[in-house]
Amino acid sequence: MNTETIDTGPVLEGALNVAEFYRGATVLVTGGTGFIGKVLVEKLLRCFEVKKIFLLIRRKANVSATDRLQQMLEGPIFDTIRSTAPDAKERFAKVVAMDAAFDREDIVDDVDKTKLCNEVQIVFHVMASIRFNEVLDEAIAINVTSAQRLYALASSMAELRSIVHVSTFYANCNRPYIEERIYDDVPYGGLEHIQLFFKSLSVEEKERMTRVVLGDMPNSYVFSKKCAEAMVGREFGHLPIGIFRPPIVISSYREPEPGWVDCFHGATGLCVPVVLGKTMWYYGKPEVKPFMSPVDHTVSGMLAAACDIYRRQCTILPVEKPVPVYNFTFEKNRFAYGDMVELVCSGLPNVLDRWLSRIKCRISPWKIFPQMLLWLMTLQARIADEILAWFGKRGSNVKIVSAITTLSNAVEYFRCHMWTMDNSNVKRMLSLLSRDDAKRLDFDGEQIDWRDYHKSYAKGIAMELMRKNDRRKSSMAANRA
Protein backbone atom coordinates (compact mmCIF):
# COMPACT_ATOMS: atom_id res chain seq x y z
CA MET A 1 0.00 0.00 0.00
CA ASN A 2 1.25 3.46 -0.87
CA THR A 3 1.72 5.51 2.33
CA GLU A 4 2.73 8.73 0.59
CA THR A 5 0.57 11.51 2.00
CA ILE A 6 -1.43 13.65 -0.40
CA ASP A 7 -2.91 16.99 0.57
CA THR A 8 -6.50 16.55 1.72
CA GLY A 9 -6.79 19.72 3.76
CA PRO A 10 -4.94 22.88 2.80
CA VAL A 11 -7.48 25.25 4.35
CA LEU A 12 -7.56 23.96 7.93
CA GLU A 13 -5.54 21.27 9.61
CA GLY A 14 -7.47 18.00 9.36
CA ALA A 15 -10.03 19.37 6.91
CA LEU A 16 -11.12 17.38 3.88
CA ASN A 17 -10.30 18.48 0.36
CA VAL A 18 -12.34 15.99 -1.61
CA ALA A 19 -11.77 17.53 -5.05
CA GLU A 20 -8.01 17.20 -4.64
CA PHE A 21 -8.34 13.65 -3.34
CA TYR A 22 -9.98 12.49 -6.59
CA ARG A 23 -7.85 14.57 -8.97
CA GLY A 24 -5.98 12.19 -11.26
CA ALA A 25 -7.14 9.14 -9.28
CA THR A 26 -8.10 5.74 -10.66
CA VAL A 27 -11.28 4.39 -9.07
CA LEU A 28 -12.61 0.83 -8.97
CA VAL A 29 -16.37 0.32 -8.62
CA THR A 30 -18.39 -2.86 -8.19
CA GLY A 31 -22.15 -2.69 -8.72
CA GLY A 32 -21.62 0.22 -11.11
CA THR A 33 -24.60 -0.77 -13.28
CA GLY A 34 -26.99 -0.70 -10.32
CA PHE A 35 -29.10 2.16 -8.95
CA ILE A 36 -26.50 3.65 -6.57
CA GLY A 37 -23.57 2.62 -8.79
CA LYS A 38 -24.83 4.57 -11.81
CA VAL A 39 -25.22 7.75 -9.79
CA LEU A 40 -21.72 7.24 -8.35
CA VAL A 41 -20.14 6.88 -11.81
CA GLU A 42 -22.09 9.86 -13.16
CA LYS A 43 -21.04 12.05 -10.22
CA LEU A 44 -17.38 11.09 -10.55
CA LEU A 45 -17.40 11.91 -14.27
CA ARG A 46 -19.33 15.16 -13.97
CA CYS A 47 -17.86 16.70 -10.81
CA PHE A 48 -14.33 15.30 -10.36
CA GLU A 49 -11.21 15.11 -12.48
CA VAL A 50 -10.60 11.39 -12.11
CA LYS A 51 -8.13 9.67 -14.38
CA LYS A 52 -10.03 6.41 -14.89
CA ILE A 53 -12.95 4.39 -13.54
CA PHE A 54 -12.77 0.60 -13.67
CA LEU A 55 -16.14 -1.14 -13.42
CA LEU A 56 -16.21 -4.82 -12.48
CA ILE A 57 -19.26 -6.12 -14.36
CA ARG A 58 -20.64 -9.63 -14.50
CA ARG A 59 -21.69 -11.14 -17.82
CA LYS A 60 -25.47 -11.24 -17.88
CA ALA A 61 -27.63 -13.24 -20.31
CA ASN A 62 -24.66 -13.57 -22.68
CA VAL A 63 -24.20 -9.77 -22.73
CA SER A 64 -20.52 -8.92 -22.18
CA ALA A 65 -19.25 -6.42 -19.61
CA THR A 66 -18.33 -3.96 -22.38
CA ASP A 67 -21.81 -4.13 -23.94
CA ARG A 68 -23.48 -3.70 -20.54
CA LEU A 69 -21.32 -0.63 -19.91
CA GLN A 70 -22.26 0.83 -23.29
CA GLN A 71 -25.95 0.30 -22.57
CA MET A 72 -25.54 2.02 -19.22
CA LEU A 73 -23.72 5.06 -20.63
CA GLU A 74 -26.49 5.51 -23.21
CA GLY A 75 -29.06 5.82 -20.41
CA PRO A 76 -30.83 9.06 -19.43
CA ILE A 77 -28.84 9.45 -16.22
CA PHE A 78 -25.85 10.59 -18.32
CA ASP A 79 -27.83 13.13 -20.37
CA THR A 80 -26.62 16.01 -18.18
CA ILE A 81 -23.00 15.24 -19.04
CA ARG A 82 -23.86 14.84 -22.72
CA SER A 83 -25.67 18.18 -22.83
CA THR A 84 -23.37 20.31 -20.66
CA ALA A 85 -19.82 18.94 -20.97
CA PRO A 86 -17.98 19.82 -24.22
CA ASP A 87 -15.60 16.93 -23.54
CA ALA A 88 -18.37 14.40 -22.80
CA LYS A 89 -16.87 11.80 -25.15
CA GLU A 90 -13.49 12.00 -23.42
CA ARG A 91 -15.15 11.69 -20.02
CA PHE A 92 -17.07 8.57 -21.01
CA ALA A 93 -13.83 7.09 -22.37
CA LYS A 94 -12.46 7.14 -18.81
CA VAL A 95 -14.89 4.35 -17.85
CA VAL A 96 -13.46 0.90 -18.52
CA ALA A 97 -15.44 -2.33 -18.14
CA MET A 98 -13.82 -5.51 -16.86
CA ASP A 99 -15.41 -8.95 -16.96
CA ALA A 100 -15.74 -10.19 -13.39
CA ALA A 101 -16.86 -13.52 -11.96
CA PHE A 102 -17.35 -13.25 -8.20
CA ASP A 103 -18.12 -16.95 -7.90
CA ARG A 104 -14.43 -17.67 -8.56
CA GLU A 105 -11.51 -17.19 -6.19
CA ASP A 106 -9.84 -14.95 -8.77
CA ILE A 107 -12.61 -12.56 -9.74
CA VAL A 108 -10.75 -11.20 -12.80
CA ASP A 109 -8.20 -12.70 -15.18
CA ASP A 110 -4.44 -12.21 -14.70
CA VAL A 111 -4.12 -9.35 -17.19
CA ASP A 112 -6.91 -7.32 -15.55
CA LYS A 113 -5.61 -8.20 -12.10
CA THR A 114 -2.22 -6.70 -12.95
CA LYS A 115 -3.89 -3.49 -14.21
CA LEU A 116 -5.96 -3.14 -11.06
CA CYS A 117 -3.06 -3.83 -8.71
CA ASN A 118 -0.84 -1.29 -10.48
CA GLU A 119 -3.34 1.52 -11.07
CA VAL A 120 -6.25 1.61 -8.59
CA GLN A 121 -6.17 4.00 -5.64
CA ILE A 122 -9.81 4.11 -4.51
CA VAL A 123 -12.34 1.24 -4.27
CA PHE A 124 -16.13 1.42 -3.88
CA HIS A 125 -17.77 -1.93 -3.24
CA VAL A 126 -21.44 -1.25 -4.00
CA MET A 127 -22.47 -4.62 -5.47
CA ALA A 128 -24.99 -6.61 -3.43
CA SER A 129 -27.98 -8.89 -3.72
CA ILE A 130 -30.99 -7.01 -2.34
CA ARG A 131 -33.41 -9.95 -2.59
CA PHE A 132 -34.89 -10.21 0.89
CA ASN A 133 -36.11 -13.80 0.48
CA GLU A 134 -32.78 -15.27 -0.66
CA VAL A 135 -31.70 -18.56 0.93
CA LEU A 136 -29.05 -17.64 3.49
CA ASP A 137 -26.02 -19.35 1.93
CA GLU A 138 -26.75 -17.69 -1.42
CA ALA A 139 -27.07 -14.27 0.23
CA ILE A 140 -23.77 -14.87 2.03
CA ALA A 141 -22.07 -15.92 -1.23
CA ILE A 142 -23.04 -12.64 -2.92
CA ASN A 143 -22.85 -10.19 -0.02
CA VAL A 144 -19.95 -11.64 1.96
CA THR A 145 -17.77 -13.95 -0.11
CA SER A 146 -17.67 -11.53 -3.07
CA ALA A 147 -16.48 -8.74 -0.78
CA GLN A 148 -13.91 -11.09 0.75
CA ARG A 149 -12.45 -11.87 -2.67
CA LEU A 150 -12.44 -8.22 -3.73
CA TYR A 151 -10.56 -7.09 -0.61
CA ALA A 152 -8.06 -9.91 -0.98
CA LEU A 153 -7.36 -8.46 -4.43
CA ALA A 154 -7.22 -4.93 -2.98
CA SER A 155 -4.53 -6.07 -0.53
CA SER A 156 -2.18 -6.31 -3.52
CA MET A 157 -2.95 -2.82 -4.88
CA ALA A 158 0.32 -0.89 -4.72
CA GLU A 159 -1.22 2.61 -4.54
CA LEU A 160 -4.34 1.88 -2.50
CA ARG A 161 -5.64 4.91 -0.58
CA SER A 162 -9.18 4.05 0.45
CA ILE A 163 -11.92 1.38 0.30
CA VAL A 164 -15.59 2.14 0.93
CA HIS A 165 -17.56 -0.96 1.85
CA VAL A 166 -21.24 -0.08 1.26
CA SER A 167 -23.39 -1.87 3.82
CA THR A 168 -26.82 -0.86 5.13
CA PHE A 169 -27.94 0.94 8.27
CA TYR A 170 -30.25 -2.03 8.89
CA ALA A 171 -27.43 -4.58 9.12
CA ASN A 172 -27.99 -4.48 12.89
CA CYS A 173 -31.73 -3.78 12.91
CA ASN A 174 -32.29 -6.20 15.79
CA ARG A 175 -30.85 -3.43 18.01
CA PRO A 176 -32.99 -0.39 18.91
CA TYR A 177 -29.90 1.85 19.12
CA ILE A 178 -27.19 1.52 16.46
CA GLU A 179 -23.71 2.91 17.03
CA GLU A 180 -21.00 3.63 14.47
CA ARG A 181 -19.10 0.45 15.14
CA ILE A 182 -18.95 -3.14 13.94
CA TYR A 183 -21.11 -5.59 15.89
CA ASP A 184 -19.24 -8.88 15.66
CA ASP A 185 -21.92 -11.04 17.28
CA VAL A 186 -22.83 -13.36 14.41
CA PRO A 187 -24.68 -16.32 16.04
CA TYR A 188 -24.08 -20.08 15.80
CA GLY A 189 -20.31 -19.80 16.18
CA GLY A 190 -19.86 -17.21 13.42
CA LEU A 191 -19.97 -17.01 9.66
CA GLU A 192 -17.63 -19.94 8.93
CA HIS A 193 -19.72 -22.35 11.01
CA ILE A 194 -22.92 -21.25 9.27
CA GLN A 195 -21.37 -21.71 5.82
CA LEU A 196 -19.99 -25.14 6.72
CA PHE A 197 -23.35 -26.24 8.14
CA PHE A 198 -25.33 -25.12 5.06
CA LYS A 199 -23.00 -27.04 2.70
CA SER A 200 -24.43 -30.37 3.84
CA LEU A 201 -28.13 -29.38 3.58
CA SER A 202 -30.66 -29.98 0.83
CA VAL A 203 -32.50 -27.06 -0.78
CA GLU A 204 -35.60 -27.64 1.38
CA GLU A 205 -33.49 -27.92 4.55
CA LYS A 206 -31.66 -24.67 3.67
CA GLU A 207 -34.96 -22.83 3.37
CA ARG A 208 -36.14 -24.10 6.75
CA MET A 209 -32.81 -23.46 8.50
CA THR A 210 -32.52 -19.96 7.07
CA ARG A 211 -35.45 -18.87 9.23
CA VAL A 212 -33.93 -20.55 12.30
CA VAL A 213 -30.49 -18.95 11.86
CA LEU A 214 -31.92 -15.48 11.18
CA GLY A 215 -33.56 -15.45 14.61
CA ASP A 216 -34.79 -11.90 15.29
CA MET A 217 -33.35 -10.55 12.03
CA PRO A 218 -36.11 -9.97 9.42
CA ASN A 219 -34.42 -11.37 6.29
CA SER A 220 -31.26 -12.89 4.79
CA TYR A 221 -30.23 -9.58 3.18
CA VAL A 222 -29.66 -7.66 6.43
CA PHE A 223 -28.19 -10.76 8.13
CA SER A 224 -25.65 -11.28 5.33
CA LYS A 225 -24.75 -7.57 5.45
CA LYS A 226 -24.08 -7.95 9.17
CA CYS A 227 -21.84 -10.94 8.42
CA ALA A 228 -19.97 -8.89 5.81
CA GLU A 229 -19.26 -6.11 8.29
CA ALA A 230 -17.94 -8.59 10.83
CA MET A 231 -15.75 -10.16 8.11
CA VAL A 232 -14.29 -6.75 7.18
CA GLY A 233 -13.42 -6.02 10.80
CA ARG A 234 -11.77 -9.39 11.39
CA GLU A 235 -9.89 -9.92 8.14
CA PHE A 236 -9.23 -6.54 6.53
CA GLY A 237 -8.80 -4.04 9.36
CA HIS A 238 -5.21 -3.54 8.21
CA LEU A 239 -6.43 -1.96 4.96
CA PRO A 240 -7.58 1.67 4.59
CA ILE A 241 -11.20 0.55 4.68
CA GLY A 242 -14.40 1.99 6.10
CA ILE A 243 -18.02 0.84 6.31
CA PHE A 244 -20.68 3.14 4.91
CA ARG A 245 -24.25 2.44 6.06
CA PRO A 246 -26.97 4.14 3.99
CA PRO A 247 -30.61 3.74 5.08
CA ILE A 248 -33.51 3.32 2.62
CA VAL A 249 -32.18 4.87 -0.60
CA ILE A 250 -34.81 6.63 -2.70
CA SER A 251 -34.99 8.77 -5.87
CA SER A 252 -32.60 11.66 -6.39
CA TYR A 253 -33.25 15.06 -4.85
CA ARG A 254 -31.41 17.29 -7.35
CA GLU A 255 -28.72 15.31 -9.23
CA PRO A 256 -28.43 14.29 -11.99
CA GLU A 257 -32.04 15.48 -12.23
CA PRO A 258 -34.82 15.77 -9.61
CA GLY A 259 -36.74 12.54 -9.03
CA TRP A 260 -34.49 10.26 -11.11
CA VAL A 261 -34.91 6.56 -10.35
CA ASP A 262 -34.40 3.38 -12.36
CA CYS A 263 -35.66 0.63 -10.04
CA PHE A 264 -38.63 -0.02 -7.81
CA HIS A 265 -37.17 -1.63 -4.70
CA GLY A 266 -38.29 -0.84 -1.18
CA ALA A 267 -40.16 2.39 -0.47
CA THR A 268 -40.14 3.55 -4.10
CA GLY A 269 -41.78 0.34 -5.31
CA LEU A 270 -44.59 0.72 -2.76
CA CYS A 271 -45.32 4.20 -4.13
CA VAL A 272 -45.94 2.92 -7.68
CA PRO A 273 -49.69 2.28 -7.01
CA VAL A 274 -50.01 5.91 -5.84
CA VAL A 275 -48.59 7.17 -9.14
CA LEU A 276 -50.78 4.77 -11.16
CA GLY A 277 -53.92 5.75 -9.25
CA LYS A 278 -54.40 2.21 -7.91
CA THR A 279 -55.86 1.25 -4.55
CA MET A 280 -53.39 -0.24 -2.07
CA TRP A 281 -53.34 -0.34 1.72
CA TYR A 282 -50.19 -1.43 3.58
CA TYR A 283 -49.96 -2.75 7.11
CA GLY A 284 -47.66 -0.72 9.35
CA LYS A 285 -47.46 1.85 12.12
CA PRO A 286 -48.30 5.30 10.68
CA GLU A 287 -46.29 7.02 13.44
CA VAL A 288 -43.03 5.21 12.55
CA LYS A 289 -40.42 7.56 11.11
CA PRO A 290 -38.05 5.75 8.72
CA PHE A 291 -34.54 6.81 7.82
CA MET A 292 -34.49 7.68 4.10
CA SER A 293 -31.82 9.21 1.90
CA PRO A 294 -32.02 10.46 -1.71
CA VAL A 295 -29.56 8.59 -3.91
CA ASP A 296 -27.59 11.75 -4.80
CA HIS A 297 -27.12 12.54 -1.09
CA THR A 298 -26.04 8.95 -0.48
CA VAL A 299 -23.42 9.04 -3.24
CA SER A 300 -22.06 12.38 -2.05
CA GLY A 301 -21.68 10.90 1.42
CA MET A 302 -19.83 7.90 -0.01
CA LEU A 303 -17.43 10.14 -1.93
CA ALA A 304 -16.66 12.17 1.19
CA ALA A 305 -16.26 9.01 3.27
CA ALA A 306 -13.54 7.66 0.94
CA CYS A 307 -11.55 10.85 1.48
CA ASP A 308 -12.15 10.74 5.25
CA ILE A 309 -10.97 7.12 5.46
CA TYR A 310 -7.71 8.15 3.79
CA ARG A 311 -7.33 11.18 6.05
CA ARG A 312 -7.69 8.94 9.09
CA GLN A 313 -4.95 6.64 7.80
CA CYS A 314 -2.59 9.58 7.33
CA THR A 315 -3.30 11.56 10.49
CA ILE A 316 -4.05 9.06 13.25
CA LEU A 317 -1.00 7.77 15.10
CA PRO A 318 0.33 4.42 13.77
CA VAL A 319 -1.38 2.22 16.33
CA GLU A 320 -4.08 -0.33 15.71
CA LYS A 321 -6.98 1.61 14.17
CA PRO A 322 -10.61 0.46 14.32
CA VAL A 323 -12.44 0.29 11.00
CA PRO A 324 -14.43 3.56 10.76
CA VAL A 325 -18.20 3.18 10.36
CA TYR A 326 -20.50 5.85 8.92
CA ASN A 327 -24.19 5.71 9.86
CA PHE A 328 -25.51 7.83 7.00
CA THR A 329 -28.71 8.72 8.85
CA PHE A 330 -30.08 11.95 10.27
CA GLU A 331 -32.35 11.99 13.32
CA LYS A 332 -33.92 15.39 12.65
CA ASN A 333 -36.18 16.25 9.73
CA ARG A 334 -37.74 12.79 9.39
CA PHE A 335 -41.34 12.26 8.28
CA ALA A 336 -43.71 9.48 9.38
CA TYR A 337 -45.05 6.72 7.13
CA GLY A 338 -48.51 8.12 7.80
CA ASP A 339 -47.47 11.35 6.04
CA MET A 340 -45.75 9.63 3.13
CA VAL A 341 -48.83 9.13 0.94
CA GLU A 342 -49.74 12.81 1.23
CA LEU A 343 -46.18 13.83 0.35
CA VAL A 344 -46.07 11.53 -2.69
CA CYS A 345 -49.53 12.70 -3.80
CA SER A 346 -48.36 16.32 -3.69
CA GLY A 347 -46.31 15.61 -6.82
CA LEU A 348 -49.24 14.29 -8.89
CA PRO A 349 -50.18 16.73 -11.69
CA ASN A 350 -53.96 16.33 -11.39
CA VAL A 351 -55.82 17.81 -8.39
CA LEU A 352 -58.44 15.03 -8.42
CA ASP A 353 -55.72 12.36 -8.49
CA ARG A 354 -54.05 13.99 -5.50
CA TRP A 355 -57.30 13.90 -3.53
CA LEU A 356 -58.34 10.35 -4.51
CA SER A 357 -54.90 8.84 -3.90
CA ARG A 358 -54.99 9.88 -0.25
CA ILE A 359 -58.08 7.68 0.11
CA LYS A 360 -56.90 4.82 -2.12
CA CYS A 361 -53.46 4.42 -0.49
CA ARG A 362 -53.02 4.13 3.26
CA ILE A 363 -50.72 2.82 5.98
CA SER A 364 -53.08 0.88 8.26
CA PRO A 365 -52.23 -0.12 11.86
CA TRP A 366 -54.78 -2.97 11.55
CA LYS A 367 -53.71 -5.93 9.46
CA ILE A 368 -57.23 -7.11 8.65
CA PHE A 369 -58.06 -4.20 6.31
CA PRO A 370 -55.01 -4.56 4.00
CA GLN A 371 -55.65 -8.32 3.87
CA MET A 372 -59.31 -7.89 2.90
CA LEU A 373 -58.38 -5.32 0.27
CA LEU A 374 -55.68 -7.62 -1.11
CA TRP A 375 -58.19 -10.46 -1.46
CA LEU A 376 -60.58 -8.20 -3.39
CA MET A 377 -57.77 -6.83 -5.59
CA THR A 378 -56.51 -10.33 -6.40
CA LEU A 379 -60.04 -11.41 -7.36
CA GLN A 380 -60.47 -8.32 -9.51
CA ALA A 381 -57.07 -8.91 -11.18
CA ARG A 382 -57.95 -12.54 -11.99
CA ILE A 383 -61.24 -11.51 -13.56
CA ALA A 384 -59.52 -8.78 -15.61
CA ASP A 385 -56.87 -11.24 -16.86
CA GLU A 386 -59.57 -13.79 -17.79
CA ILE A 387 -61.46 -11.17 -19.81
CA LEU A 388 -58.26 -10.19 -21.63
CA ALA A 389 -57.61 -13.88 -22.34
CA TRP A 390 -61.03 -14.20 -24.01
CA PHE A 391 -59.92 -11.52 -26.47
CA GLY A 392 -56.61 -13.29 -27.10
CA LYS A 393 -54.59 -10.85 -25.02
CA ARG A 394 -52.18 -11.62 -22.23
CA GLY A 395 -53.02 -9.93 -18.92
CA SER A 396 -50.52 -9.07 -16.18
CA ASN A 397 -52.86 -7.77 -13.47
CA VAL A 398 -52.35 -10.76 -11.14
CA LYS A 399 -48.60 -10.56 -11.65
CA ILE A 400 -48.54 -6.86 -10.71
CA VAL A 401 -50.64 -7.36 -7.57
CA SER A 402 -48.45 -10.32 -6.57
CA ALA A 403 -45.23 -8.32 -7.07
CA ILE A 404 -46.44 -5.40 -4.97
CA THR A 405 -47.72 -7.77 -2.25
CA THR A 406 -44.39 -9.63 -2.14
CA LEU A 407 -42.49 -6.36 -1.82
CA SER A 408 -44.89 -5.07 0.84
CA ASN A 409 -44.49 -8.23 2.92
CA ALA A 410 -40.70 -8.13 2.54
CA VAL A 411 -40.39 -4.64 4.03
CA GLU A 412 -43.25 -4.89 6.55
CA TYR A 413 -40.77 -5.20 9.42
CA PHE A 414 -39.35 -1.77 8.61
CA ARG A 415 -42.82 -0.16 8.64
CA CYS A 416 -43.36 -1.43 12.19
CA HIS A 417 -40.05 -0.61 13.90
CA MET A 418 -38.13 2.56 14.63
CA TRP A 419 -34.48 3.05 15.56
CA THR A 420 -32.19 5.63 17.12
CA MET A 421 -28.53 5.91 16.23
CA ASP A 422 -25.21 7.70 16.50
CA ASN A 423 -23.95 9.51 13.38
CA SER A 424 -20.96 11.38 14.82
CA ASN A 425 -18.61 10.35 12.00
CA VAL A 426 -21.01 11.64 9.34
CA LYS A 427 -21.56 14.93 11.15
CA ARG A 428 -17.82 15.36 11.61
CA MET A 429 -17.32 14.75 7.87
CA LEU A 430 -19.80 17.51 7.12
CA SER A 431 -17.95 19.92 9.39
CA LEU A 432 -14.61 19.14 7.69
CA LEU A 433 -15.75 19.87 4.13
CA SER A 434 -14.26 22.90 2.43
CA ARG A 435 -16.72 25.50 1.14
CA ASP A 436 -16.33 24.34 -2.47
CA ASP A 437 -16.70 20.67 -1.54
CA ALA A 438 -19.80 21.43 0.54
CA LYS A 439 -21.41 22.84 -2.63
CA ARG A 440 -20.18 19.91 -4.73
CA LEU A 441 -21.22 17.29 -2.15
CA ASP A 442 -24.60 18.19 -0.72
CA PHE A 443 -25.45 15.42 1.75
CA ASP A 444 -26.75 17.10 4.89
CA GLY A 445 -30.00 15.22 5.42
CA GLU A 446 -31.18 17.71 8.01
CA GLN A 447 -31.41 20.37 5.30
CA ILE A 448 -33.72 18.43 2.98
CA ASP A 449 -37.08 20.09 2.33
CA TRP A 450 -39.20 16.95 1.96
CA ARG A 451 -42.15 18.83 0.45
CA ASP A 452 -39.85 20.28 -2.17
CA TYR A 453 -38.30 16.84 -2.70
CA HIS A 454 -41.66 15.16 -3.33
CA LYS A 455 -42.62 17.65 -6.03
CA SER A 456 -40.47 15.53 -8.39
CA TYR A 457 -40.84 12.11 -6.74
CA ALA A 458 -44.05 10.97 -8.46
CA LYS A 459 -42.89 12.38 -11.80
CA GLY A 460 -39.63 10.42 -11.55
CA ILE A 461 -41.53 7.18 -10.92
CA ALA A 462 -43.88 7.91 -13.84
CA MET A 463 -40.90 8.57 -16.15
CA GLU A 464 -39.26 5.27 -15.22
CA LEU A 465 -42.55 3.40 -15.72
CA MET A 466 -42.69 4.88 -19.23
CA ARG A 467 -39.09 3.89 -19.94
CA LYS A 468 -39.73 0.34 -18.75
CA ASN A 469 -42.85 0.14 -20.92
CA ASP A 470 -40.90 1.40 -23.97
CA ARG A 471 -38.15 -1.17 -23.34
CA ARG A 472 -40.75 -3.92 -23.03
CA LYS A 473 -42.36 -2.93 -26.34
CA SER A 474 -38.96 -2.77 -28.08
CA SER A 475 -38.05 -6.20 -26.72
CA MET A 476 -41.36 -7.70 -27.92
CA ALA A 477 -40.91 -6.13 -31.35
CA ALA A 478 -37.37 -7.52 -31.59
CA ASN A 479 -38.59 -11.00 -30.65
CA ARG A 480 -41.28 -10.89 -33.35
CA ALA A 481 -38.70 -9.84 -35.92
Automatic annotation (TrEMBL):
InterPro entries: FAR, FAR_C, FAR_NAD-bd, NAD(P)-bd_dom_sf. Keywords: Lipid biosynthesis, Lipid metabolism, NADP, Oxidoreductase. One of its GO terms (biological process) is long-chain fatty-acyl-CoA metabolic process. GO terms for molecular function: alcohol-forming long-chain fatty acyl-CoA reductase activity; alcohol-forming very long-chain fatty acyl-CoA reductase activity. Its EC number is 1.2.1.84. Gene3D superfamilies: NAD(P)-binding Rossmann-like Domain. Residues 377-466 form the Fatty acyl-CoA reductase C-terminal domain. Residues 29-300 form the Thioester reductase (TE) domain. One of its GO terms (cellular component) is peroxisome. Catalyzes the reduction of fatty acyl-CoA to fatty alcohols. Belongs to the fatty acyl-CoA reductase family. This is Fatty acyl-CoA reductase. It comes from Anopheles melas.
